[in-house]
Amino acid sequence: MRYYGAKTKLLPLIEEVVKSTGVNGTSNFVDLFAGTTSVGQHFKKLGYTVYSNDMLEFSYALSKTYIELNKEPQFKKLNSKLKLKNGISSLLNYLNKSDTNTQGFIYENYSPNGERMYFTDENAQKIDTFRTLFEEWKNEKLINELEYYYLITSLLRGVNLISNVTGTYGAYLKTWDNRALKPLILEEVPIIKSSTKNKAFKKDANELIKSIKPDILYLDPPYNSRQYASNYFLLELIAEGWFGEKQPEIYGKTGMRNYEHQKSDYCSKTKALNALEDLVLNGSKAKYILLSYNNEGVISQPGIQKVLEKVGEVETMFENHKRYRSINQTVEDPQLTMEFVYKVKPKKTVNKTNNLSGKEWLQNSFSIWRELGKTDEERKLNHPAIFTIKLASKLIDTFCKPNGGKILDPFAGSGTTLLAGLMKKKEIIGFDLNPEFKELFIKRATQSYNFDEYNLEKKYIVNDSRFLTNHIEENSVDLCITSPPYWDVLNRRRTADYKDNVNYSDQNEDLGNIEDYNEFLQSLKEVTGEVFKSLKPKGYYILNVMDLRKKSNFYPLHMDASMLAKEIGFNLEDIIIWDRQNEYNNMRPLGYPYKFIVNKVHEYLLILRKPEK
């Protein structure tokens, strides 16, 4: 079948890589982006149990036939009604000789009659006739599911040979190709005999991987911005059919079928890397992961390497491969691409929630955390309300997977959370309104912690955190740790120890300069909403807050903050008390001797989590 991205010519290399894993016999081989199923067919022939998946219906039909079907269908019910011999040959002979004059959806839209030249009028009527019959036979229960998809596959194979296109269906030729003038013929589909229970799926790859456990996980995602759902929309239309009350929506000069619901993130430069990371992390329960990609893909080779190294050791094999040629490609374009096959042996640690030992897990599970005070470097900063590296590091160790992960701090301040993330070899991104804090972060990172200045500028964005998703991809963050301004308390003299306070900035947008408590909470809720959108499903949001007192009024900020987070959609999973008593000195008996008032020497760590769906 004419199909760009097919791996037929690379099968020897892929087989060599699979053999090098030592995984053989009837082990399962999971192909999550099956396309025309050429790879799945190859490994089915080698005796593997193949799971073949693709989100497109026409690919699913091929998987049902080539992968799930292990012997030729007999069509006993249908042949009995038609008074034909059992088996496929007599049925196909009957169809090829039958009257094919149905003037249906394909004839009306994709032949010269419909002012488009995908098929001749005669072939368009044949497609309409055959496809209508298959649907009727299925509804009358004269054929079972596998027999139905066998017939669809036979039709797709025939259509592929007489389509008036160069290879994809994004456009038709303005003059007739010689192949398109030949009559459409239904032929037998070669079936691979197998004794293993092979299975076809039609699901989103990133969702399916959560429910299966591969031995060999083979990934061949789209490489570039060309969406398969649009380039092969006509095959998809024929596979899905046009039956029932609602006709397919088509538009434009080519009669393109609506495909918004089938767009792949792997074709997007901004989404592909995150999608691959999510897929690889969830697929790390496989014995081996194999990834096919080439040097012209939307994901860079360093990006792929970085993602794969998060789950295990990476080996890379490659070979030059003749490039797929499009109709508008010039002679100056390169003739070859470099095709890579990455082999990864996942580490067992990747499936763990974190990398804590049993002893550390127990210690971190205590509801009160102590001895997480400032380092000497932090004391010298004289920051008005510093969030300590010891605390941020402990939170990352507890709530982030051991391999990889992206850390966000929407109130980054002097960059403590970001520094802890860098130390833990995580990807980081911070936001703050004050450019002086960005300079302080870079100074700390380079002078006190010896990090290379390269790229630090991009990791700290000077902007309002109420617009996070203008700068970072939604569903891309693993863990958010932050300590927002505690209302406008830094603008007031502290009554517990009489220390002077220094505010963060003079900007009106600063949450620490909002005088009205309810207005402050509303602004905090807006930031929380942006964090929610930024986090991956099941990602954690650790919010460090402290209850407040203004004169005789008490404000339970930890309660209010948790309620507004729940309104956004977060689940409140727990609360940890951060005991800071050792850091306080010069305390005085508040209200003595007329009214007892509590000296607050603890803060709250709200453990919030985004639901899976």
Task: Describe the structure in your own words.
- There is one protein chain.
- By secondary structure, this protein is an alpha/beta fold.
- The chain is elongated and about 105 Å long.
- The longest helix has 19 residues, at 121-139.
- The model is unreliable at 324-329 (pLDDT under 50).
- Helix 3 (57-68) crosses helix 8, helix 12 (272-282) packs parallel to helix 13 (301-309) and helix 16 (389-399) crosses helix 17 (416-423).
- The strands form 4 sheets. It has an 8-stranded mixed beta sheet, with helices on both faces. The chain has a 7-stranded mixed beta sheet with strand order 3-2-1-4-7-9-8, sandwiched between helices.
- Helix 2 links the parallel strand 1 and strand 2.
- It is built from 20 helices and 19 strands.
- Helices cover 33% and strands 17% of the residues.
